[in-house]
From TrEMBL:
This is Dihydrofolate reductase family protein. Pfam families: RibD_C (PF01872). InterPro entries: DHFR-like_dom_sf, RibDG_C, Riboflavin_Biosynth_HTPR. It comes from Streptomyces bangladeshensis. SUPFAM superfamilies: Dihydrofolate reductase-like. Residues 2-180 form the Bacterial bifunctional deaminase-reductase C-terminal domain. It comes from the Bacteria.
Length: 187
């Protein structure tokens, strides 16, 4: 059975985007960017909701071709492009870059994918991750909490029907005061 991991950068007050989908507060240090790139390398499949997919696919397919791209950005862009991806959406009808589109029941498909043999899967996007959380499918949470308050926006955690008990498995501080915390779901 595969492990499902939900991780993103977020503000201290728990938002992955400020009002208006503004993510300008989230400028990762080189070390944090490398952490996320290494996680991508260790992941077999990434699951995206539509909004995060559109954000990622607007930049990373050609991120390695930009004249100002750093070696780390070049590496990440290539990893991202090569990574098998699944996008869950009922409003788009086409995806590219080693990606498959699912328009049906996201929870049923995530459950099916988890039951397969293989390495870990990442899930991104608050709405999609929220559905997976409510279904009890997420095994690990990775929070890179920036020392900034957004005051509103898109929350990392959505409303849940029941408690989810977690065990802290790692803490790490990155430059700029970003605190990484990893939690595993207690089953």
């Amino acid at each position: 059975m595969r492990k499902l991991i939900y991780g993103m950068n977020l503000t201290l007050d728990g938002y992955i985007a400020a009002p208006g989908d503004d993510i300008g507060w989230s400028v990762p240090s080189d070390e944090l960017f490398q952490f996320w790139s290494d996680r991508l390398e260790a992941t077999d499949l990434t699951l995206y909701g539509r909004k995060l997919w559109q954000t990622m696919s607007s930049y990373w397919p050609t991120g390695d071709q930009r004249p100002d791209a750093t070696p780390a950005e070049i590496e990440f862009a290539r990893r991202w492009r090569d990574m098998p991806k699944v996008v869950f959406s009922s409003t788009i009808d086409q995806v590219d870059w080693n990606t498959r589109l699912v328009t049906g029941d996201a929870v049923a498909e995530i459950t099916r994918l988890k039951a397969e043999d293989g390495g870990p899967m990442d899930i991104g996007g608050a709405t999609l991750a929220g559905a997976a959380m409510r279904a009890g499918l997420i095994d690990e949470y990775v929070l890179a909490t920036a020392p900034v308050l957004a005051g509103g926006g898109t929350p990392f955690f959505t409303a849940l029907d029941t408690w989810v008990n977690l065990t802290l498995v790692e803490t790490r501080t990155f430059p700029g005061g970003v605190l990484l915390t990893r939690y595993e779901t207690r089953r």
